[in-house]
Amino acid sequence: MAIIGDIEHSRVARSNIYGLSKMGARVFLAGPATMLPRNIEQMGVDVYTNMKDAIIDADVVMMLRIQLERQKQSIFPSLREYSQHYCLNRNNINWPKKT
């Protein structure tokens, strides 16, 4: 299972990490370094800043929205740049493994 996006500000991400890990799933995370919580690896997840590295071995990909309302300041250069690196599109949708 890969979770991509604003991990830092997401309550859903932590809940899913906990639940999926308890059920035996391997969890991969990816997002900009500014959207990844410090020490999140301690929850037993693999953490990447490159989306391809996180989803290449995933059976399922969950995309998180950017939670602008929880950010005190902009933590990424632009929405355009973010979308180029952390949004699914017709090219990278084929990166996860086929089941």
Detailed description of the structure:
- The chain is α/β, with parallel strands linked by helices.
- It has helices at residues 11-22, 51-55, 79-86, and strands spanning 2-4, 28-30, 46-48, 61-63.
- The radius of gyration is 13 Å and the shape is globular.
- The model has no long low-confidence stretch (mean pLDDT 87).
Mean pLDDT: 87
Strand order of the largest sheet: 3-2-1-4
The helix fraction, in percent, is 25-40%
The whole-angstrom Rg is 13 Å
* N-to-C series of helices and strands: EHEEHEH
Using DSSP, what is the number of strands?
A: 4
> Based on CA inertia axes, which overall geometry fits?
globular
- The span between the termini is 13 Å
Mind summarizing the main beta sheet?
Answer: 4 strands, parallel
Number of helices: 3
Low-confidence stretches: none
The secondary structure category is alpha/beta
Percent strand = 5-15%
Sequence-ordered SSE layout with sheet pairings:
Elements lengths: L1 E3 L6 H12 L5 E3 L15 E3 L2 H5 L5 E3 L15 H8 L13
Parallel strand pairs: 1-2, 1-4, 2-3
